[in-house]
Q: What sequence folds into this?
């Protein structure tokens, strides 16, 4: 296998774009005309020479293409932030840019769509996560102003050629494969980045000559695995036959792209494949799904992955990496280790992988299954390891928890022994494990090596640290707390089966043998309604949820904590008339702008 090459080219020049004719744009600071769709903000990538930075130099006539579809274009030029500051600072400047947008009537622009090329996508991700410039802190905005985002060749996990400009400026250092910046950004929320759940798609190129990594596997700068949105969601990555920038520019001069190759963002007509993806995706059609090749069908992404590996001690402190090796049934490989911090490889066969790492005299081992399609950030450490913190009732997207909810912590070596809570009130220690959320110790329902069920404290808010502590060590991950994340319990534990509910008519569990009738009151059990207020001896949810059964409103008479069970919520609602008889009528709860999983109820 061929690894990322560290060649003696001036790699930093490869992020520049050739200049084109100026397009028609709403100038910065001017009022934005209202159209039926949100305005589209274009964000450019790394520029070697900011004096020549322009919209057309990065995006060609993309604004004219969108104008013909009735869409307004804006340009966030990162060169307007002087001094080539770290990408985090550009993310903060982007936040200010969005906050200052006004319509012609003086009202704020609440939502925009975004098209981001190369480093521009990392600027957007810094904004979404609230990444700060000092170390790894994050301060995510309470709400985001982005509806949809199209990424074009964004090096989500870096570009090896950027290392050739190491030390020249902060941006190139952060763009380099194996940078701490990229690892932290890729793991900021429960060990991953879900883009705050915004609707997103990416186009990535495979038109490079292979000098950057491998022919058919890079766009002259970025590897397919690095640019993939695999970490976000499947089915959102399209591979197109373009280069990172126009081949008549520097990438062609240095042989990284064929002379005259087309740049992935250099849109010169409405038939450019990136233009087809942008127009279709932003306008809500499915045509983009037939442009280029899906990652799942690409000859590399369908079978290969990338790895970003960090080492930590049992007490969750970062360790110096002296060597990191990955081994699968097909390949054994020493990973690239540019700074004894993050080890990486762009190309490794997916499947079962054994990792062996050394830090001084310490030897660390881990085994994991890595799916194909993109990069997998990995933390290798002894002692407790947290993989996810999810609502106990069902999976959720995006990754959020809510105050007062029952959450399941999944991972490895979480508890020293399996133990179920046998009595109330619940305790703070179970199976030799303690859980804290921020500075508050959490109550525990259940503990085993691979799962702990806990109650998120009522005062949790924003981005909090969830920590599991045992005598073998500790591990902490960030978890983002939303006001409400409704999650319906199901009787089979699947999250999409028969809802955990009681028929108030006969006080029996709702089953196909005990269906609900029109006018019946049903007691639905769930978690994640958020904070509550005590009234008349009951804890009422501060945010009133809505319930639909069979797509019809089920009027709510009570919503709040189920008496006597910390973290368990209950909603009482009245089954509407006119429902079609069904053994599996869908039931959905909405609260705080979040929809629950879809469970079912039998209706007669």
A:
């Amino acid at each position: 296998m061929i690894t990322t090459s560290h060649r003696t080219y001036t790699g930093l020049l490869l992020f520049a774009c050739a200049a084109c004719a100026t397009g028609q744009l709403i100038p910065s600071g001017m009022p934005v005309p209202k159209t039926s769709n949100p305005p589209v903000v274009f964000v450019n990538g790394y520029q070697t020479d900011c004096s020549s930075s322009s919209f057309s130099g990065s995006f060609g006539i993309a604004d004219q293409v969108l104008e013909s579809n009735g869409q307004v274009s804006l340009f966030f030029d990162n060169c307007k932030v002087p001094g080539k500051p770290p990408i985090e600072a550009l993310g903060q400047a982007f936040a200010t840019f969005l906050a200052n947008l006004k319509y012609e009537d003086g009202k704020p622009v609440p939502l925009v769509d975004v098209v981001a090329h190369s480093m521009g996508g990392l600027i957007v991700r810094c904004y979404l996560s609230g990444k700060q410039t000092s170390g790894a802190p994050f301060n995510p905005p309470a709400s985001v102003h982005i509806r949809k985002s199209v990424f074009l060749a964004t090096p989500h996990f870096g570009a090896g050629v950027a290392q050739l400009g190491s030390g020249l400026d902060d941006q190139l250092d952060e763009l380099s494969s194996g940078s701490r910046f990229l690892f932290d950004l890729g793991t900021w929320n429960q060990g991953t980045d879900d883009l705050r759940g915004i609707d997103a798609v990416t186009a990535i190129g495979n038109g490079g000559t292979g000098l950057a990594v491998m022919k058919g596997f890079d766009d002259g700068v970025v590897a397919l695995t690095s640019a993939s949105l695999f970490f976000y969601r499947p089915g959102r990555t399209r591979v197109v036959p373009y280069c990172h920038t126009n081949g008549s520019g520097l990438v062609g001069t240095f042989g990284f792209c064929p002379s005259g190759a087309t740049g992935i963002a250099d849109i010169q007509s409405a038939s450019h494949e990136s233009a087809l993806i942008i127009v279709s995706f932003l306008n809500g059609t499915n045509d983009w799904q037939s442009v280029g090749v899906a990652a799942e069908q690409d000859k590399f992404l369908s079978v290969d992955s990338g790895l970003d590996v960090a080492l930590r001690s049992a007490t969750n402190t970062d360790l110096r990496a002296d060597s990191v090796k990955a081994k699968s049934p097909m390949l054994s490989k020493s990973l690239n280790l540019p700074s004894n911090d993050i080890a990486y490889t762009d190309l490794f066969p997916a499947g079962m992988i054994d990792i062996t790492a050394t830090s001084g005299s310490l030897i660390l081992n881990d085994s994991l299954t890595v799916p194909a399609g993109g990069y997998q950030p990995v933390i290798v450490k002894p002692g407790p390891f947290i993989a996810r913190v999810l609502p106990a009732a069902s999976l959720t997207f995006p990754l959020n928890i809510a105050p007062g909810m029952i959450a399941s912590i999944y991972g490895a070596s979480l508890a020293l022994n399996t133990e179920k809570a046998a009595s109330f009130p619940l305790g703070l220690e179970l199976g030799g494990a303690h859980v804290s959320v921020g500075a508050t110790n959490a109550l525990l329902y259940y503990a085993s090596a691979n799962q702990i069920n806990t109650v998120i404290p009522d005062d949790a808010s924003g981005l909090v640290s969830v920590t599991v502590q045992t005598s073998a060590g500790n591990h902490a991950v960030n978890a983002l707390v939303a006001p409400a994340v409704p999650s319906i319990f199901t009787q089979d534990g699947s999250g999409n089966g028969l809802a955990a509910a009681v028929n108030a008519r006969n006080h029996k569990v709702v089953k196909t043998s005990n269906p609900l009738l029109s006018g019946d009151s049903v007691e639905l059990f769930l978690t994640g309604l958020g904070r509550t207020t005590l009234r008349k001896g009951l804890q009422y949810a501060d945010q009133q949820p809505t319930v639909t059964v069979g797509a019809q409103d089920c009027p709510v008479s009570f919503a709040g904590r189920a008496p006597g069970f910390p973290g368990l919520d209950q909603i009482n609602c009245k089954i509407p008339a006119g429902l079609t008889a069904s053994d599996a009528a869908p039931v959905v709860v909405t609260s705080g702008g979040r929809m629950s999983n879809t469970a079912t109820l039998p209706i007669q």
